[in-house]
Amino acid sequence: MKVTGYELFMVEPRWLFLKIETDEGITGWGEPVLEFKAATVAAAVDEMMDHVMGRDPMQIERHWQRMMKGGFYRGGPILNSAVSGIDQALWDITGKKLGVPVYQLLGGAVRDRVKIYGHVGAQVDRDKFGKMPLKEELKVMSENVQKQLSRGLKAIKFTPSDSLEHIDTPAEVKNIVKRVEAVRELVGDDIDIAIDLHGRFSLAMARRLFPLLEPYNLMFIEEPVLPEFTEHFDLIVRSTSTPIATGERLFSRGDFKDVLRSGIAVAQPDLSHAGGISECRRIAAAAETYDVSMAPHCPLGPIALAACLQLDFATPNFLVQEQILGLGKGNDGDLMKYIADFSVFDAPDGYIELMTKPGLGIEVDEKAVREASVKGHRGRAPEWHHKDGSFAEW
After folding, report:
1. Could you tell me the CA-to-CA distances from 4 to 7, 52, 367 in Å, in that order?
2. What is the pLDDT of residues 75-85, one digit of tens each?
3. Where are the alpha helices (DSSP H) in the chain?
């Protein structure tokens, strides 16, 4: 079997899909995208495919080594995201050729179902966040929480703050605590809560706030500080008993070395950024040696999620899977239209059952993908500023 061609599809809201074709008529799909840099990654995929065209797609590791290391310059989010999507598609082809799900090629399933969590998006509107009375803000948050619970989910995640000053006011610290407290009181103790800080906190603010959140028994606190400060993660870990998670902006085993040693509880590599299935299975193995769980980052589309699930099923130290597709009871949202049969993602009780179809376990609706790609997209991250006009982390 040989690779004979490939196509890239820019699909809203911010996705990039890759289709790889073979001379046996077997096709594989991947999602090689970096949020807000889709066009740049597409150019990198076009270059990387030179290493794959005309060759056996089942030699996945040989292609991975050549793509990742053969250009002299290595690493970074663009290169690694390009390789990630190609890697996903090659695993998809191999599984389809052999008639088995990818997790079977990774040693077989170690679990029967995968726990997922949903996002509570009450604070995404920056024009309102922090400007409406806290009581009204909490009402909006409550409505969003109830929407996720109505889907049968047993875990949710939200961002409890807007951008923060390097050392913010006592009032802002108290408001963050009140938001977390309100959600915990609403859902009770049978629902897991995680919070995502998007790297907005300084080391000082993290150590000030985190002890105040301990009474609410969070599943984890995600990316409290920027990845530039991973060598100091031990300061944060030692400041609280709450599990600390990070990794969505780390792109290789090497990038994870310091944080694994720091005492984090949860590693969050993104299978569309951190070298695909091939590298993330190695990150998972490295994490296991430090008693660190895996919760793959996936604020992306159904192909990326399918790749994550294949790894999740085969990973002993897996914890929970992120998704933004509105999964749970009744998967009929607009974001699901690119999958011909999205019942494989059903999660009425907050868990996706073991997928059994070969490859990544999904059938892409190519007609819908082609139609959507005509419009394409050019998404950009919001531009945030502090009160004094200086740059603020989104």
Report:
1. 11, 9, 20
2. 899 999 999 99
3. 38-48, 60-69, 77-98, 102-105, 134-150, 170-187, 203-213, 233-237, 253-262, 276-288, 302-314, 366-375
What pLDDT sits at residue 59?
Answer: 98
Indicate if the pLDDT at residue 312 is higher than 80.
yes
CATH topology for 3-101 is Enolase-like; domain 1 (3.30.390)
- Right CATH for 104-356 from 1.10.10.10, 3.30.450.40, 3.20.20.120, 3.40.50.150: 3.20.20.120
At residue 124, does pLDDT exceed 60? no
Cβ atoms of 233 and 268 closer than 8 Å: no
What pTM did the predictor assign?
A: 0.95
Contact 250, 256 (CB under 8 A): yes
- The average confidence (pLDDT) of the chain is 93
Identify the three-state secondary structure at position 2.
coil
**Active site residues per annotation:** 198, 297
Query: Which residues are 30's β-sheet partners?
Result: 18
Strand-pairing partners, residue 321, are 116
Cβ atoms 234, 257 nearer than 8 A: no
Span 172-196, pLDDT tens digits: 999 999 999 999 999 999 999 999 9
